[in-house]
Amino acid sequence: MTLLNVIREQRVARRLTQDELAKLVGVSRQTIVALEKGEYTPSTLLALKLAHAFGASVEDLFRIE
Q1: Residue 42: burial class (beta carbons within 10 Å; 0-12, 13-18, 19+)
Q2: Number of compact structural domains in the chain
Q3: Cβ neighbours of residue 37 under 8 Å, at least 6 residues apart?
Q4: Residue 1 predicted with pLDDT over 90
Q5: Most buried among 6, 12, 25, 57, using CB within 10 Å?
Q6: Does residue 46 carry a pLDDT above 90?
Q7: What are phi and psi of 2, to 5 degrees?
């Protein structure tokens, strides 16, 4: 199974840089880069922080393929 996400699409739609998003959720820009590439599986806490930052649910941002 693969974890897919729409983090990049949500970030771009809100005109946030990777650095700005990283600061909003308390991680490094490199973490956002890896997450957007699908190379990093976030913790539950990070997934919740991302959902809050985007005003979405975790299910809106992530899905299993």
Answers
A1: buried
A2: 1
A3: none
A4: no
A5: 25
A6: yes
A7: -120, 140
- Contact between residue 11 and residue 21 where contact means Cβ atoms under 8 Å apart: yes
Mean pLDDT of the chain: 97
Determine the structural domain holding residue 26 and report its residue range.
3-64
CA gap 45, 13 in Å, rounded: 23
pTM for this entry: 0.94
Query: At 50, which amino acid appears?
Result: L
In what helix (H) or strand (E) does residue 46 lie, and over which residues does it extend? helix 44-54
Q: Which residues contact 3 (CB under 8 A, 6 or more apart)?
A: 38, 41, 62, 63, 64, 65
Tokens of 64: 């299993």
